[in-house]
Design a protein that fits this description.
Helices cover about 25% and strands about 20% of the residues. With about 110 residues, the protein is an alpha/beta fold. The chain has one domain. A 5-stranded parallel sheet has the order 2-1-3-4-5, covered by helices on one side. It is globular, with a radius of gyration of 13 Å. The mean pLDDT is about 95.
Length: about 110
């Protein structure tokens, strides 16, 4: 999968996402773009997954018609030491997220209704 790592996540996370082609927003020269424009650029460049720590993205963007999936890291902080324990779940989310879908890692527990 082609994965775009958002600018607020540490670039040192990229080598831990084994089996995927990972580029950072900075490497793409897209730093400072707002989320809508960033997602459009990522789609046009052929990225399949956008990996971010922005927990508000799902409330700010309509992802339904997007051609990429979004994985949101919900760690205590965006520090590498807080993100590394999530890598196995992140890899699973990257492998299974569909275009237009958002996955949160760690996943929110289902609420019984």
């Amino acid at each position: 999968m082609r994965v775009l790592l958002d600018e607020q996540l540490p670039r040192q996370l990229a080598p831990h996402l084994v089996g995927h082609e990972v580029r950072t927003v900075q490497q793409q020269s897209w730093a400072g773009l707002k989320n809508g424009a960033l997602l459009t650029e990522a789609e046009q460049a052929g990225f399949e997954v956008f990996l971010t720590g922005d927990r508000n993205l799902e409330y700010q963007q309509n992802l339904r018609n997007r051609r990429l999936g979004v994985v949101v890291l919900a760690a205590p902080s965006n520090a590498l030491e807080d993100l590394l324990p999530l890598v196995p779940e992140v890899l699973g989310a990257i492998a299974t997220v569909q275009a237009g879908e958002l996955r949160r890692v760690p996943a929110r527990p289902e609420v019984a209704g």
